[in-house]
Amino acid sequence: MNGEYMEQTKIEEKEARSATDSMKINEREQTQIGLMRAYVETRDPSSKTKIEEKEARRARDSMKINEREQTQIGLMRAYVETQDPSSKEVDDQTLRRFLHARDLDIEKASVMFLKYLNWRRTYVVNGSISPSEVPHEIEQNKFFLQGSDKNGRPVAVLLASRHFKHKGGLDEFKRFNVYLLDKICSRMPSGQEKFVLIADLEGWGYSNSDIRAYLAALSLVQEYYPERLGKMFIVHSPYIFMSVWKILHPFIDNKTRKKIIFVDNKKLESTLLEEIDESQLPQIYGGQLPLVPAQDA
């Protein structure tokens, strides 16, 4: 009787695992995988064992990576806490992002992280930037926050043609970027650390060009918000923007470059819908959500 119960329990556990896997794969793919699996197993029964062995190897490799990361996080934490006691208040996920930004090099990641802590303490004195500190930037109404992509990453939209230099200067622009990035990060669900940006250049011209501001924003993201950008879609890009892009490109690190996609106007809607469900996509791109100004999000 106990044997039958244990056998039934094993069957139920196996079915539960299969159900979990199915949730991760869309129905069409699941059907195709099922048909293919059934076919190859009738042709070669050993294929079932080979597939299971491959899955087991992947699981073991994943465990090794996690163990290695955890060890490095522990070593990094031990070091940075001796250099700056406030490091104790930072979670492992944050340290992990800095490690990944420096290809798991503990020394380089620690230097980067300690620089971040000092910057945060001196530049964001009150812990956050308030809207009252960036009035000219907010007045331009150029940045929007609404919805999330299929991975749960918050979606932000920048209408670049609304950006102009103003009397607030570069410092207000940088503070506005900190205000935005902090707001985006606060909207990330548990377990998610990245966001998606749609940079819309429709109507952009030389009057909007601001190289110093672009470089400042790039520096902030790469130095103080590492591994936060998940993907950036540049849409409606005019030909004249490429002269600016050539200036910016050398300052973008390789990891960030791989996340930037210039979208063909003819494939705009289909490209965005691959990443963002229609119910979460802004109306101006064929979705259902209205644009919500960042300050109102």
The CATH homologous superfamily of the domain at 132-296 is termed CRAL-TRIO lipid binding domain
CATH architecture of the domain at 132-296: 3-Layer(aba) Sandwich
C-alpha geometry: globular
Number of helices: 11
Taking all residues together, what is the mean pLDDT?
Answer: 86
The tally of beta strands, per DSSP, is 5
Main sheet: strands, sense, barrel: 5 strands, mixed
Keywords for this structure?
CRAL/TRIO_N_dom, CRAL_TRIO domain-containing protein/CRAL_TRIO_N domain-containing protein, Phosphatidylinositol Transfer Protein Sec14p, five-stranded mixed sheet, 297 residues, globular, 55% helix, alpha/beta, disordered N terminus, CRAL-TRIO_dom_sf
Report a brief summary of the structure.
The protein is α/β, with parallel strands linked by helices and 297 residues long.
Spell out the blueprint of helices and strands.
Layout: H1 2-24, H2 27-43, H3 46-83, H4 92-101, H5 106-123, H6 135-139, E1 143-148, E2 154-159, H7 169-186, E3 195-200, H8 211-224, E4 229-235, H9 241-248, H10 254-257, E5 260-262, H11 268-275
Parallel strand pairs: 2-3, 3-4, 4-5
Antiparallel strand pairs: 1-2
